[in-house]
Each structure stands twice: as structure tokens, then as C-alpha cells.
Amino acid sequence: MxxxxxxxxxxxxxxxxxxxxxxxxxxxxWLGLQxxxxxxxxxxxxxxxxxxxxxxxxxAALIGATPEQIVFTGGGTEADNLALRRSRVARRRVxxxxxxxxxxxxxxxxxxxxxxxxxxxxxDNSGRVDLGRASSVLAEPAGLVSVILAQNETxxxxxxxxxxxxxxxxxxxxxVHSDGAQAVGKVAVDxxxxxxxLLTIVGHKLYGPCGIGxxxxxxxxxxxxxxxxxxQERGVxxxxxxxxxxxxxxxACRLAxxxxxxxxxxQAELRDGLQAALVAGIPGARVTGHGADRxxxxxxxxxxxxxxxxxxxxxxxxxxxxxxxxHADGDGGILHAMxxxxxxxxxxxxxxxxxxxxxxxxxxxxxxxxxxxxxxxxPSFSPSSG
Length: 386
Fold this sequence. Notes:
It is built from twelve helices and twelve strands. By secondary structure, it is an alpha/beta fold.
């Protein structure tokens, strides 16, 4: 569906993506004409079960898993909480990074309150985990390690495979989880290459519906369910499967698999053009994560002399954010972990592109943001003072 001419240019795809036309079309029959409980033995139930099974296979194929390793959840937060709070660990020590999403950070904090040891891996100035420092932290055996695959604000890709190897060298029975919410559907993800036991997938981050996600579980028994019930989803997430939502997630994964490389390359070229225009037009602008591998669609930049929120206030033609939607009032924790000074961190802008973003959109966005920054920073900033 094309953007209405009067609508703002949408540059907040890391917050949520619009449901793709092909995904909507796959879901529609299951919102009316098609129905049935996938656990029922009659024809209606069998058709629903077949649709769920097909979707499970599509999700699995996108990450190099088998269908039996996919458990559907109500979204990424539920999947992350299952991974952190319901994994069958050998020891009560959890290790995360200092740049996790709240859906991992808060469960880790809750574990610490329950008596677990919680350690965090530091990142370098690019926002990537410092493997030299990580090796000493991971030399002590852990029960659970959770590492975000692509940081949701900066887009920086983390060295999950290397961290997994370090953790397993100290504790072969460690359970390794990665929050793949932002990465799956944007870059190639292979669970075997990553060396993970658990991986979180989120529907609304890859053009599927909100309210559906999945947890890859390498082998049965690693994760216990929250609830007791009919035993659906191998008992990890009992309850009647929402067939329409599951079908939507499967269709979204199929869409991503069809053009992952070409669409990623297209968005990266647009992202780089936007980056060049902002750096040229805003003296002192700092690209966060520059030099590190990043998601192809994500540009995080800190502008000097004003708050990022003030820039966006002066740019109603754009729909963007200053950071994660889950840090709406942000405390700058991610940028602080990267060593970015508080004043510059206040000027953060997260610009995330998507399938509908065009070259004309990017050109207009660049002009709009440079103008908005000039207006917002005018009272307190000049190039010579930056």
C-alpha cells in the first residue's frame, strides 16, 4: 500500500513495520471464511493445523532451523522472558551486554533480585561488544548468556558467535540466547552459525502483525512454560494458536527470504546517502556505530547544540524517533555505555528505513532534518563552537 501524499515520511521501521500486502492477504481468510481450532480432529481443525505447520516451516527456514524448533509466542517480550526466566540452567549466573533491549535487561535485573549473579559485557565506542574484555568476564562459567543480535537503537550487529564460543569454552552446558528482534528479516541469520540455543523473532519488526513472535529452541526441554494447559507449542506456550497471526508471521518470513540480500542492499544505499547528507549539512554530527557492521536500514546520529526531540518537533513532515520506542523517555543508557557524552547524546536521532522508503523520501528527509536542526540549534550553536 503506497504512502498517502499528505502522510509524514516514515523513518521509524525499527519501532514497527507496516503489515505487508502479501502478509495481509495471507491472513484475511483466517479472519473470517477460514477457521478452526488447530487441535481439533475434524476438517476445520486439520486445515488450521496445516496452516500453522506451514507457517512454522517458513519461520524455521528463515533462520536455518527445523520446524520442531519453533515455538510461537505473543511477541518478542514474551519470547525474551521465556528465554531468561524459564531456561533450565546449570548455574545461577546470567551474562548480558550493556546494550540490551528492556525485554532482556529487566528480566536479568529480576533474576539478580532473586539472588542470581548478573554481569554485563561492555561495548566499545562503536557500540559493539569488546571481545577482549568479554573474554575475562566469560572465563567464569555462566548458566545463561543473552546477547542482542542487532542493537535496536544503533543497529550495530554484535559478535554473537564469538561470544557463544567464549561462553562454551568455560561452561559447555551454558544456554546461549540472542534477541534477534531487529535482525531477523533484515540480515541473514543462521542459528547454527551463531551457536545459539535460543533466538527471539518478532512479527511486527519484519512486516508481520503485532502480537505474534517466536522462540527458536535448539532442543526439547531447554525452556519450561509459564502456564499449564493443553500442551500446545510443546507445552512451552500452551493455549489455542492464533491461526491468523501465525499465518501472518509465516508470510512475513517468506517475504523476507525472497529478497533479503537485494532489499538489504537497496536500503543500505539509501541509508548511506542519508548519512552523507546529514554529516555534510550538520557540522559536528556524529554517526553512532560508524565503522561497525550495522543493520542496512538503520542510521543513528547525534546532532550537537540541541535535543533530538526538538529537531523532530520542527520536522512534522517526518515520523522518526530519538531512540527505542521502549525507551520513550530515554535515559541515554545505550549511548552512555558507548562513552558518548551526555550533551551530544541528548541530540540522538534514530532513522530507520524500510521497504517503502524511496530515494525521494531520503532526499526530502535530509533537507528537512538539516533545516530543523538549524532552527533548533540556532540560539546556542554555531559551527565554530561545535
